[in-house]
Amino acid sequence: xxxxxxxxxxxxxxxxxxxxxxxxxxxxxxxxxxxxxxxxxxxxxxxxxxxxxxxxxxxxxxxxxxxxxxxxxxxxxxxxxxxxxxxxxxxxxxxxxxxxxxxxxxxxxxxxxxxxxxxxxxxxxxxxxxxxxxxxxxxxxxxxxxxxxxxxxxxxxxxxxxxxxxxxxxxxxxxxxxxxxxxxxxxxxxxxxxxxxxxxxxxxxxxxxxxxxxxxxxxxxxxxxxxxxxxxxxxxxxxxxxxxxxxxxxxxxxxxxxxxxxxxxxxxxxxxxxxxxxx
Length: 279
Fold this sequence. Notes:
Number of domains: 1
CATH class: Mainly Beta
Strand order of the largest sheet: 1-24-23-22
Number of strands: 24
Distance between the termini: 22 Å
Number of helices: 1
Largest sheet: 4 strands, antiparallel
Low-confidence stretches: none
């Protein structure tokens, strides 16, 4: 590591879905049901939208409108710059359990994950990954265990964290619309991979939710290293940002979610790791 961890934002409940967009860090305070944009230089953050009780994945359409996952409603909302919102896609008729994180491609294609089971009381089971493209909703993958954080690896592949299977799935997409799981990468037991991002060299940086670390994964060799230790905190997401995408931002909070809205222990940390992210 080239730098030391620094705290840049505090006073949050449960930050996740970190996104660097047009010079600002955007994120969901998931359990507070809020979407924020932040000025990292001043340490201030500003509420953009309230989507209670739980909001997760974020992305943007080509026209600049924000997309945000309304988890309990199992839908994706579209919000324009004035704050006007509409339901972009409703998935409630297909999923019993909440929607979760999301990847939005440059052309607006949206990939949305689902819990697939109740992690508090149930046994992990396979769930589907939704795709919404050109007004058409389908479910091209149905074999993921709690599909969570997602990021593009290249034009034809993206990676999905399977949180309660301790693994990553590399998804291949092609111009014909076919989608399949091309490869899986096993992580150490109890890694609970959550949010993730990909650097300019193709390595995958993974927030190990209950593992108190950021993992760095080589998608070719499958080698996993504990790149950043974050003792005593739940580590829930990471993304590259800053002027040259040279800073890794990390979302942390208490692993006991019942304390999140009482103590507001959530923070966003930053560190230079000697490599930049991708646009």
